[in-house]
Amino acid sequence: MTPPLNPETLNLETLNLEIWSLTDAPAMAAIAFPFADEVLFQIGPVALRWYALSYIAGILIGWLILRRITRHANDPVGNAPLESLLNASIIGIILGGRLAYVVFYNPSYYLSQPLEALAVWKGGMSFHGGLIGILLAIYLVCRHHNKGFFQLADLVAIVAPIGLFLGRIANFINCELYGRVTDMPWGVIFNQGTCLNNNGISLAGDLPRHPSQIYEALLEGLVLFIIMLVLLRLGLRQRIGCLSGVFLTGYGLARTFVEFFRQPDSQIGFLINGTTMGQWLSLPMIIAGLYLLFRASSSDHQHKVR
């Protein structure tokens, strides 16, 4: 018999689990988690992990695309700033992403285990922190090459969804940031392979869950990238700040939506009115993005890129 619900410890996730058990629903079709190892290949002590590969591939592919976009001699940005941005963005994304995760998502743990903050290969990166890091990198590069901030930021906004897509796929392979319990037929059972901790236990349990990493890869990555390419072809790069505004607004809305299916970090849980940390951190992005769109569309700020 299922024990009675305790209102003092009740939250949305436990409610889902209790309803599942109370209904004694028959086993539904679900997808078994397919990845057994977070390491792609290893030679001696050197290992290439999917997580690291997603960062490397995302930055390099984005850099190559931007070189092609700015290849013409009369391009207002040109290739030279991109060479500087390549190294600066790597540092900014890693430092910003890791620092924000440590501060916003699990500060008590890292205060007790400070050296673990350096273990980036174990996962734990914040997109919002990575965004701040790359914005700082863009600022420094623009200052060095005497370029306008949004001239370069708009270019980065075009290719940023590539890194998001690959990063979310790596999240799925690493069995992190999985979704809430679901009875949908595409639910994934995150209970084997990379989902197992050192004690052979999966914190996700044996119930099917939303593959929220894939939802994010499609919305924040593929769909947003297509939108950015279409806007580029339509000539909106000429409106300074427009592409940056579309990216910030698009990512913020996509992230806010997917958070309704994603399981909150266990050390944080749900916040006020069932919201999540990811939704609150996305709100400033949406506001900033809408402001940039308004600014770019106003008659006083329709500056052409020269």
Salient structural properties:
mainly alpha; disordered N terminus; 4% strand; two-stranded antiparallel ribbon; 306 residues; two-stranded parallel ribbon
In brief, what are we looking at here?
With 306 residues, the chain is mostly helical.
H/E series: HEEEHHHHHEHHH
- State the domain count: 1
Major sheet characteristics: 2 strands, parallel
**SS strand fraction:** under 5%
Q: How far apart are the termini?
A: 72 Å
Number of helical regions: 9
Give me the side-by-side strand order of the main sheet.
1-4
Envelope shape: globular
Low-pLDDT parts are 1-27
Rg, alpha carbons = 21 Å
Number of strands: 4
- The overall pLDDT, averaged over residues, is 85
- Measured as a percent range, the helix fraction is 40-55%
Secondary-structure map:
Layout: H1 12-23, E1 31-32, E2 39-43, E3 46-49, H2 50-69, H3 80-105, H4 107-112, H5 127-145, H6 149-173, E4 188-189, H7 212-233, H8 242-258, H9 277-297
Parallel strand pairs: 1-4
Antiparallel strand pairs: 2-3
